[in-house]
Amino acid sequence: MSQETILNLHNHTTYSDGHGTYTDIAQAAAIANIDVVIVTDHNIRPRGLEKYYCIEDKNILILTGEEIHDRTHSPQKNHLLVFGVEEELAHLGGKTQWLIDRIRQINGFAFLAHPNEDALSFFKEPNISWVDWDITGFHGLEIWNGMSEFKTVCKDSMLTALFYAFFPHLLAQGANKLTMQKWDELLRKGLHVYAVGGTDSHATPYRKGPFKRIIYPYQFHFSTVNNHILTEQKLSGNFQVDRQVIFNAIRHGHYFVGYDLPHPTKGFRFTGKGQFGEYQMGDTALEEKNITLQIRLPYPAICNLIHNGKTIQTWNQQEICTHQAVEPGYYRIECYISFMGKKRGWIYSNPIFLGKGA
């Protein structure tokens, strides 16, 4: 039975443009029942801050990554979330392929941050979408970014932005559609790239006339888009061991992205059983001719099975779903839930790959 750890990533502190400390983030994570947080400040990797933080009776594992971007662009483009390295690599931000190559050389891995993001001109927030699609060797894409979604939903209206500043629980729609299309495009090419969800938390105080609001507090963001990591054993409490366990799980795609505000996504599973074994998200059933896919939802919802970019089966309001997969390629799951009068994205699995064609 796999163990599940809830991870929130893509967060910023006072070391870059965030408005809280590592301790502030640990305290917010403890309240929101988050197990692990990865901080990714812009073009800086602080030393000596990643560790277990004891908040009352909870141990919160805080890890340090980095969001490196190309400062030669105006606005600054090609934001890359870098994990699993000890070396400061911000000086390579203007040479993206060199940066990715170096990350791989030192056994790290990287995800393209908010590949599709709109400008929010009345807050002087530019479009910082990814532009260099000639690069290779990256590990995956950030398919859902909390602050990017705020910019997309509110881009045409100050009143809309003010509304969602005060009613943030009504904002989220789902993973970015353009990014999902790009992910499927890359997977169809045979690339084993994985998806992560990020909140991009800054806890930024904004003022517009008489209105003042933090968009959004860490604690609120931690209740929304998370990554649910699956491991063979529970975290041990040993920092070095558990750091490696978390990064290995992300490296192999053994997790799913869940929007936990409408209903907890903990307990979702997507597995495949075949002649030669059992497979979980991120695995390749290389020698199998067919596998039985099994989906377990923690709450009845709409569940779509996607094969090579196309929805091949939909289940409505079920908790247990099965499908016999016989065609080679990749299979992944998207689930949708009704919340506050709208259908919203809820769970996005990483793929299971079937056959040598995968």
Question: Could you please describe the fold and organization of this structure?
Answer:
This protein is an alpha+beta fold. It has 2 domains: 3-261, Alpha-Beta Barrel (TIM Barrel), CATH 3.20.20.140; 268-358, Immunoglobulin-like. It has 7 helices and 21 strands. Strands 1, 2, 3, 4, 12, 13, 14, 15, 16, 17, 18, 19, 20 and 21 form a 14-stranded mixed β-sheet that branches. The protein has a 5-stranded mixed β-sheet with strand order 5-6-7-8-9. The longest helix has 13 residues, at 239-251. It is globular, with a radius of gyration of 20 Å.
Helix content class: 10-25%
Counting H and I runs of at least 4 residues, what is the number of helices?
A: 7
CATH homologous superfamily classification of the largest domain = Metal-dependent hydrolases
Terminal CA distance: 26 Å
Topology pattern, helix = H, strand = E: EHEEEEEHEEHHHEEEHEHEEEEEEEEE
What is the CATH architecture annotation of the largest domain?
Alpha-Beta Barrel
- Strand percentage lies at 35-45%
The largest sheet, given as strand count, sense and whether it forms a barrel, is:
14 strands, mixed
Task: For the structure shown, list the relevant keywords.
2 domains, alpha+beta, single chain, 21 strands, Immunoglobulin-like, 39% strand, 5-stranded mixed beta sheet, TIM Barrel, 14-stranded mixed beta sheet, 358 residues
SSE blueprint:
Blueprint: E1 3-11, H1 22-31, E2 36-39, E3 51-55, E4 58-64, E5 66-70, E6 77-83, H2 96-105, E7 109-112, E8 140-145, H3 146-154, H4 158-166, H5 177-188, E9 194-198, E10 204-208, E11 211-215, H6 218-222, E12 225-231, H7 239-251, E13 255-259, E14 269-274, E15 277-280, E16 284-285, E17 291-307, E18 310-325, E19 329-339, E20 342-349, E21 352-354
Parallel strand pairs: 1-2, 2-4, 7-8, 8-9, 16-21
Antiparallel strand pairs: 1-12, 3-4, 5-6, 6-7, 10-11, 12-13, 13-20, 14-15, 14-17, 17-18, 17-19, 19-20, 19-21
Helix pairs in contact: 3-4
